[in-house]
């Protein structure tokens, strides 16, 4: 078939990129080769617009075993234990087919983790939908939530934490980010780098079908009115097969038969084989007729580009095939030698012994396009609102309105659709600042959280980038965990637009600065560009997945109130920053102005000191103050317990709204028994930390002195009603 | 006491139950579904999960597996059999327990802690619980809505074949605290000889105070009694 401009365009390649292909091949590609270039050179696989920015992120540290570039990041948590984790987006498929899109998002990220020799121990998710009254939102919400649950529940990995947000910016382009965390032995990590000549290349797992062909290319373009036609490019997940594949792989990994292993994710057999060969500086020869196929008459093109799920590629040591095959047969999975490593440095494709394609590996990998796209800075917005000019609202009314709003409502409607307990190591479930998973049969535990703040990032990407890293760090500190490292999922609009590229570049600078300062390196991640439809781009939404370590599980702490008569101390200063706050947005629909400032040295000092207080057992509960400000944080502590609070009026700030709803950063609330108060204050003062008594724990009533009093059951009811009502609307 | 845990492709609570049994001093063996004989067992446990992906119908394919023939023989000979969650579904599919487990009434997966009341404690599985004791268990299922014909339901009630019913924190048994729509708030049932127990809640998830409650411990220690 003659390659025409239309065919090139249909493969998502620009004309200059096609010229480059011809140059690299020194000839015209055939259709199979063109498809392979398209799969490898698209944004999703090549990171062509993001690479030059990503390389600035701090990726090393004393606890980092493996940074970005592998299937997942690996950190050291002491003894023989390592934690393997990564977050990934599945935005485009989930918008087209929410159940399967979300389910395969979970399946894909799990494979990234167990490919490295780790048994997955926790799943997390960050999901963003359009406005609740947008016609598509309810279907998408239901589909995505049941898809995430459907996969995780079946495979038997607990889904322990997440975030869910609604905003019109996602009306036509939802975000579905899934994170998986696994546990491995430090000396038993498996990598994807091929080694050795003439080694068998083995295909294991599900059979290859025609689903998901060109999925990665779809994820590298904006949507338009015809996007629904892309349904066939969404993969279909089978968590049952994945469970078998996981058990078979983990069983095989007990001995030394695997040289390298790579899951077939985006761009399927193409990207897995190319990545392994490229990292090992080798060639690879594949016999495509040997690939187990689900349908008759599949062409080499379809086989190479299928994104059928639950498949792996393994490069195996000599003479190990027989025992390995037995394991896969036990689990009723295919195990076929489909090729070998070569010294040609080419990807050589044969079909019934006939050469059907041959491409130099480096043309697909290291010589893939790299763009330093134009970008512009976002200026810090001005503060133009005078709060005195705003229509007055009562404190109680504002609180109730915010607590019953979709974004601040209790999320058990979602989390009850997930099995949070399977594996029976979940010692803190979702709803707290971070979830906690015990390392099986050991004293230590890890804390995990996912966070994003798109409106802060939109207003000022540099500050927003810093803020989410700090938010993640604070959430881990609040449960008593020492933050170790992060993974990030960078969801942005069209990188060809300098403003969007600027949002990306500056968010990354912010992330870099905060990660460096807090010694909180990035060990894995994923970039998702082209989130938008018909030229309308989403707000920049980097999502941070954080992992921290708790050495003694019994030292973990939660944010629910524990004792009547205890005192609530606020750590960090309140200035009353209302721009970009939940209060401005929900009460006045004001979305302008700068995000709150970040002071990294305060963040570090406050966090480290609080960890000391937790380890000295001087505090009974801890909660960070984030969106919604002081009063929302207090309400959350109360609603998750059986106690109320008597809350004091501000001592300095005259404006109640600024005091209670301001979103100044770096602040925490500590519950302290009166007998420990002096000791706590002494430690805080020694570390130059500002503190202020803000409330006392009491029975039943949530009360602000001289303002209002609500029974906590009533408060809970207000907070719990939205999802159940929405479901039946 | 010797226990055997049957492992199907897709079982996912097999490790959890093994941990619980070993912690509580059972001598436990894992038995792969392709086996054709059982080790010497005083207790056989069919664990939770999604055996064979729950394709066709929850538990339907597992009920036809090799090892289930042996489980059926042993059960008929009086061996103690405990089916939890998917294990309960499998037991109803084999006919060892009567009734069926339909989809939850809200048509959604439900994963949460619930209260159950120990209704009948005069049996091998529950003798360490106090009668009418309120227990906290965790449920995690799509199909836990127990249904049976009126005659059998009457027989279950009359012959004290219902060990656990869903209730509220005070022990009230009503529709509001029925998570999945089960008839009479049934959370578990016995066969007539009370040597076979099927239940939707997971007692193995409640054996460690640091994880959650330890209300599941007494189910296992009852068996040792």
How does this structure look, described?
- The complex is a heterodimer of chains A (729) and B (225).
- Chain A contains 25 helices and 28 strands.
- By secondary structure, chain A is an alpha+beta fold.
- In chain A, the strands form five sheets. Chain A has a seven-stranded mixed β-sheet.
- The longest helix of chain A has 21 residues, at 498-518.
- The radius of gyration of chain A is 26 Å and the shape is globular.
- Chain B is of the alpha/beta class.
- In chain B, 21% of the residues lie in helices and 25% in strands.
- Chain B contains five helices and eleven strands, in the order βαββαβαββββαβββα.
- In chain B, the strands form two sheets. In chain B, strands 2-1-3-4-11-10-9-6-7 form a nine-stranded mixed β-sheet, sandwiched between helices. A two-stranded antiparallel ribbon of chain B has the order 5-8.
- In chain B, strand 1, helix 1 (14-23) and strand 2 (27-32) form a beta-alpha-beta unit.
- The radius of gyration of chain B is 16 Å and the shape is globular.
- The mean pLDDT of chain B is 96.
- The interface between A and B is medium-sized, with 33 and 30 residues.
What proportion of the residues of chain B form beta strands (DSSP E)? 25-35%
The first-to-last residue Cα distance of chain B is 10 Å
Contiguous helical run count of chain A: 25
Task: Give the integer mean of the pLDDT values of chain A.
Answer: 94
Secondary-structure element series of chain B: EHEEHEHEEEEHEEEH
Brief summary:
The complex is a heterodimer of chains A (729) and B (225). Helix content of chain A is 35%, strand content 24%.
